[in-house]
Specification:
The structure is a homotetramer of 369-residue chains.
Chain A: E1 8-13, H1 17-29, E2 33-39, H2 43-52, E3 59-61, H3 64-68, E4 75-78, H4 82-94, E5 98-102, H5 109-121, E6 127-130, H6 137-147, E7 154-164, H7 170-178, H8 181-184, H9 187-197, E8 209-217, E9 232-239, E10 243-253, E11 260-265, E12 269-272, E13 281-285, E14 288-291, H10 297-317, H11 326-345, E15 349-351, E16 357-358
Parallel strand pairs in A: 1-2, 1-4, 2-3, 4-5, 5-6, 7-10
Antiparallel strand pairs in A: 7-11, 8-9, 8-15, 9-10, 11-12, 13-14, 15-16
InterPro entries (chains A, B, C, D): Gfo/Idh/MocA-like_OxRdtase_N (IPR000683), GFO_IDH_MocA-like_dom (IPR055170), NAD(P)-bd_dom_sf (IPR036291)
GO molecular function (chains A, B, C, D): nucleotide binding; oxidoreductase activity
Family (chains A, B, C, D): Belongs to the Gfo/Idh/MocA family.
Chain lengths: 369, 369, 369, 369
């Protein structure tokens, strides 16, 4: 008789919109993981968990610290509100648990760096930030092509995150916690830029930011202005050594979620999702030809989240490097925060090669490189 | 503490290309099912099972009858070679097991009908033929639209199954068992035609075949002719009451698998997969813009197979009607066989409304309806 | 001073929907042609001509024979009702005028053959049937690729002509003259099949029809039945030597005109207009992503008609072979008529290699080739 | 007998790549225009004109001033090198000739303004800058939709001009005259932004620039740096009243010309050319599905140039307002120059509502609007 399979015993912290899905993925779609526990302080989420998780043998906790002590627990997937990501991550690391944390670690750079330092002191613990888009089939195929020199040197990256307009105004209230549109939405695009620009070195060598600049408008939700936020933002990030990434984010994309990315290289271009669709169905009616697109981020990236769970699980079980480098995730937050600051101040922000802010008056344009 | 989840205890029979995948789906991707056993007479497949199934607690059998006696077994997924589908299905039914059987039940109509009769005598047993395409998201969305009268009355269905050319010639050898291209490939398209044409009655009223005619050529594999088969076939099925389905199948589609379907109604048309692609990535290089398509049937329909497993499991556990009606599956074989016969004889074949063959000379054209 | 340009002096016969456009093309968009005369017996068309052609120096005639005597006239473009195509073509040939005649020459095969014989007796006169689709950029690019062996041997051709539904019922009345849907609509598709299948020989060797079979339905206009016609037709043409063409035509395509063609070869496939659109604009609104398609045949093929006029003009001026072979155009009518007959009788029709009708009972299926 | 048609007697100045095409369009494809003269100082171009224009009755000049005196001349299309656009335009206006001038009027703002003033002093003379993209069918359809409030208030415009890489290095040499990538390439995109943002007022109210910022890199042609230019540029223009346009230009697009534009409104988005193709043909071969795109700007916009010629001709003959407002064309140059300056200096540039440069330190970000 064969040896039974060893499964990673994992818990999910937070059972909101994304947390519930993470729980589902680890419970049902990640063969090598076993969801053993879940934490939520919220009564409604607990009720959901009683019905949907407990029957599958998952223990429900209302105390995070207690959950960390669940017998045999090896890893935690943190999907709580952003404000407690860092604290819970640190606690988990210090309790010897591997961590998959939803992006971003924090909307504050120093807090991110603190997590990074704690993780650095526990090198045997796997810590990974959940940049789900990297696990999407189209994005990962593009990465393979870039590393195989299919398009030459990646030079320009354009990437956008456009959400369907939510007339409930939820995102207006959320703006006070989200860190702003560049930290909340474009963080994915920034992560992709860092990923593809470092593809030649397989992630070892992150590109170095030279300047960031951003603008934005409040087209539908003027209330956002009080939080220094916008509902449409455009940001440009210039890297040393001749690379540029530019981003667009919008909270008012009419048909649904449209996230797309182009990687422009010296020999070709890769375009991910230039022509969005939710499936392979087109309707030919008297008004023309029509297709639908995903209604939200999860609908677009569901399988990427599943793949993320699987790859994290495998990395822990087989003691491999996690597929999203933590340093890169901190850098993404740094860039997002700088873009948000530029949006607010209206000023272009400059950095030297060591990452220190410098006076732009002394800097010269990209064409002089 | 909540009641633990009740899971359907299922076995998979046959662990070849598709069987191994069915096993994987029931084992890892169908939360409410538990794969408890698997049968294969093949040594190589048994070795695979030892490595990939046994460690997950699956018992491996080399005797089908013995497997049927596995304690607590409730259902069987049959994915052996077509020639034993019917026999195994009947044995399973008679042993009181629910059955999900790969298409077709048999390449012989009378054998299909025999299965149908056995199933009819065991009304508490669920028997479903695995017409996977119905579980694809695009196809099921199209079905919803048809039932919601989005395109008026479905009138013409065009559907094709085009496989990537396999230079190994496997399909030539296989032709002696497959029943021929219309039974092996277009059976899916025939099933879709029956499904969409009966959508108004939610499947209760199958369309009635009036005539079938088929032609074909052996473009790359002349050896097929000895089995009365071709590598490219075109078939037309005329139904009573003004509906037509026409089909194309090919074994030599250069870029990969391209199955597509159009449902033409009196008010609009639904097109599934007119513009095939494997993901959302396009490559812009000096030779133009390029995209890839799935390389085989499974790559195209993987998630549909998973959905099929889930819906079958749910139907059994909750005692619901299975989503693919067995009578329709028999009818699909009948039409496929008639097309293959027409291909071989060169003659158009006619049926009366009761399904009896009639002499075509007495029939009149469709325009007289 | 350079020699002034010699222009082809041409007349247009018939100024209905298409005739007016031909006049416009020769007048304004064919640099090497000079429209010198136009004929129409219709008062309304004459009024249009007075306003739109006469000011540009075009002489208007209400007598065709008189027009043929217009001083210096060299060529005639015939765009009258189909019933007089042949008579006018013969008169023009006998008057020594080159002829570009709208398709079809006639809906009667013997009349087509008569035109062909007259033309054959006047070898210095250019006679060309206006199969406009051949002059479309996408179709002619496809032809180049076929002749360059890009897809191997063309084996299967699928082609469709789908018109937007015209609720005025015009096409019902027209059905008594049109020759039926296969002669009126699919004639283009038949022509394309002959063209691509003879591409290897650059048109010298037409494929030889072995059998035709057709079915159809009257989905929206039952009145069509009295003329032996339908509003949706499917036809299959089998050629000797292993080639098949299958066709679809519809009068009820909801969004507009959708003509598409696939040429399946042993090494690849060319698809023309699989994903129709009228331009490069897509609308992203709350109902999804929407695009429009051409509303009628002319909107889709406008530039092809212009190119046709230019190539015909050049062929005459430079005494080159006309780009559409007259024999092929007669063959297209023969096939269209046979399909229409099969539609009406319900019977498959067989031909021997010399084009004689033979008894199908003696024939065998395509797979035996 | 009807009154003969009155045609606009026009001359073309400059017979280089674009000039020769303009001559062709006015000669052969603009029914209401008569090309009577052409000027070029270049021997090679003169030889071409002798062969291609003179036989059609066009008089060839090697002296621009002399050409202006051609008897009966009413209008001039200026397609010489950019450096003489302004001078020739002014001369033509002062000689009482209407002018269609290739973009840009000049790469120097003060020169543009000088032309504008001369034109303003001759209000009966039509002066139009040839922003060809506005005459493209997709772009003009988009304009109609915007004016019809199909997408709500236009808020964000993204537009790009990407040329196929020219390994001859022509564009490097040209960079010393072109004004730089933002003035040479993105000028079209800037024009489109001004057009769509002023659509609500039908062009009467141009949006007011608040700030511009640009970055760029020399990925393939480092020699460009000596001219303060780049081969890939990204620019962002912020307008007062909550509108943003952002641009990308590239000299190294591998498959060919890819110009695309998105107009994001509060209720929807219009996308022009998100999925580029040269025609409706796709090739399905063993490497996947492939399509080609236009190889250069003219191939993409040929029909737009023809339409431009027709609309200019009609505006003159019927004394209508020209479809491209001259003030807007000057504004486009002003923005292009500012972007180029920002690229070179690395600094963001600010303007007050009157168009005066102001100190950015005093300005606040877009989110405060």
């Amino acid at each position: 008789m064969a040896q039974p399979i060893r499964k990673l015993r994992i818990a999910v912290s937070g059972l909101g919109r994304m947390g519930a899905r993470h729980a589902d993925h680890f419970l049902h779609l990640t063969p090598r993981a076993q969801l053993v526990a879940a934490f939520t302080p919220d009564a409604k989420e607990q009720a959901w968990a009683k019905e949907n998780l407990e029957p599958w043998g998952v223990k429900i906790y209302s105390d995070y610290d207690l959950m960390l002590k669940h017998e045999g627990l090896e890893a935690v997937c943190i999907a709580t509100v952003t404000t407690v990501h860092a604290e819970q991550t640190i606690k988990a690391i210090e309790a010897g648990k591997h961590v998959l944390c939803e992006k971003p670690l924090s909307t504050k750079l120093e807090v991110c760096q603190q997590v990074f330092e704690v993780a650095a002191r526990h090198p045997h613990i796997k810590v990974m930030c959940g940049f789900s888009r990297r696990f999407d089939k189209s994005y990962s195929s593009a990465y393979q092509l870039v590393t195989n020199d299919h398009i030459g040197r990646p030079t320009i990256i354009r990437s956008q995150t456009c959400d369907k307009y939510d007339p409930s105004g939820f995102f207006v209230e959320y703006a006070q916690f989200s860190g702003g549109i560049f930290v909340d939405c474009n963080i994915h695009d920034i992560d992709l830029a860092l990923w593809y620009f470092s593809a030649a070195s397989r992630g070892a060598q992150l590109p170095v930011v030279k300047s960031v600049v951003a603008v934005g408008v409040t087209a539908l939700e003027p209330e956002l202005a009080q939080y220094g936020d916008v509902d449409n933002g455009v940001g440009v990030v210039e890297f040393y050594d001749g690379q540029i990434a530019y981003f667009f984010s919008s909270r008012m994309n009419a048909p649904g979620q449209h996230d797309m990315t182009e990687i422009v290289g010296t020999k070709g271009k890769l375009a991910v999702n230039a022509s969005p669709t939710i499936d392979m169905l087109e309707r030919h009616t008297s008004t023309g030809i029509n297709r639908e697109i995903p209604q939200n981020y999860f609908e677009r990236f569901e399988m990427a989240f599943v793949e993320e769970a699987r790859q994290f699980t495998e990395a822990v079980l087989e003691n491999k490097t996690v597929p999203v480098d933590l340093k890169s995730s901190v850098e993404a937050v740094r860039i997002g925060i700088a873009l948000q600051e530029s949006l607010r101040s209206g000023q272009k922000i400059w950095f030297d090669r060591e990452g220190n802010r410098v006076d732009g008056a002394a800097m010269t344009g990209g064409s002089k490189l």
